[in-house]
Amino acid sequence: MGVCIVGWAHGRFGRHEGLDLEGLIGSVAGQAIENAGVFPQEIDATWLGNLNGGFVPDIFCSSFVLDADPALRWKPATRVENACASGSAAIYSACDAIEAGRARIALVVGAEKMTAVGGEEVTRVLANCSYVKEEAGKGMTFPGIFGQMARHYFERHGDHRATLARIAAKNHRNGVRNPWAQVRKDLGFEFCNTVSDKNPIIADPLRKTDCSLVSDGAAALVLTDDKTARAFARAVRFRARTQVNDWLPLSRRDASDFEGPRRAWSAALAAAGCGILDLSLVEVHDCFTIAELLSYEAMGLADRGTGARLLEDGTVYPEGRLPVNVSGGLKAKGHPIGATGVSMHALAAMQLTGQAGEMQVRNPRLAGVFNMGGAAVANYVSILEPFR
After folding, report:
1. What is the pLDDT, as a whole number, of residue 1?
2. Pairing state of beta strands 105-112 and 217-225?
3. What's the whole-number mean pLDDT along residues 180-206?
4. Which of 4, 84, 129, 192 is catalytic?
5. Residue ranges covered by each domain of the chain
6. Nearest to 102 by CA among 1, 176, 5, 193
7. 3-117+214-229, what's its fold?
8. Section 67-80 average pLDDT
9. DSSP string, 308-344
10. Active-site pick, 10, 16, 335, 345
C-alpha cells in the first residue's frame, strides 16, 4: 500500500507577533482539510512536527491540532520531534500508520514559534540539538558547527566562499517568487559575497547571508492511501521515502562527509528506480549554504569537491537541468524548525500538480525532498510523483 498527499496548506514564514504556537497550528490545519476536500470527521489521526526545546512553554501541544474542528476531538494526536527534521518525522510517522492500516486519512502539521525569545536563547535551544556533552556544553553553536564543516571542505577542495555566496544569492532570488517566503528580496551576489556591517561574519567563513533565518511558521498536509487517493481530483504519491540516522557526536564522524545524506539519497533513488537527473526539481535543507553545497555532492549531482560547477553551468537554477530550492530554501523562505519538512513536501506537491504559481518549474515529473536534523544526523529523503 502506498501513500499520497491529497491536500496542503502553507502559511507565511517570518515574525508573527500576533500568533502563538497554537495560533500558528490553527492557521493551517483547517485550511489543509478544506484544500483536500475531506470532512474533518474523516481524519483518523493527526501528527504534529515541533521541536520547541524552550522556544515557548507549550511542551504538550499535540492536541492543538484538534482545535481546527470539533470533529477532530477524540482523534489520536501525536507530537513528533527529530530536531530540524521534525516535520518529515511527523509525515513519515503518518505514512507508517497508513501503510499499517491503522489510519486511512491523516492530518500532519508542522509548526514552530521561534521569535517569542531573544536571539541568545534561540541559539542555545538550537545548540542543544547537538551532542551537548561535547558540543553545546562546551560552547559550540550550530553556526560554529557548520562553519567548521565549511573550513574542512575548503581545506580539501579550496576556498569556496564565492560558491556559498552564489548559493545564497540564488536562493534569495528564488524567494522573491515565493509568496510564503520570509525574505522576498534579491540580495545579489556582491552583497552576499562581501563582509559588511549588514553581512558580518557569524562563524568563519560563514557570513550572515550564509545562515538560515529565525522564523515563526506552519504548514500542513493531508495524507491517504493510494486506493483512497483515486477518488481525489489530484494526488501526489510517495514513490520512495528513506530515513537514515548517523551517530550524534561529531567526535565519532566527519560531518562534512555528509555520509548520512549520501546514504539516504542513494537508498531513496534506488527504491524509486530512478537516477538523480530523472528528477525535475529538488528541495534541500540549506540551513547553511555549505549544507546545500554538500547536498549537491551527496545526491550524486556532482563528485566530491566539484559542486561549485553546478552553479557555474546553471544546473541548479530554476531554468537549469535540476532546479534546487526554487522556493528560496530555508535561506530565503525561513526555517521554523518543525514546519520545515512539511513545507518542503507541500511545495513539492504544489509543483507536481502545477499549482506553484510564480515558482512553477516546467512539466515536473518527479520531485526530491531532503530534510535534515542536526549536522547530517537525521536524514530524510522523499521522491514524489503525480498520482493523478
Report:
1. 82
2. antiparallel
3. 98
4. 84
5. 3-117+214-229
6. 1
7. Peroxisomal Thiolase; Chain A, domain 1 (3.40.47)
8. 97
9. THHHHTTTTSTTSSS-B-TT-HHHHH---HHHHHHHH
10. 335
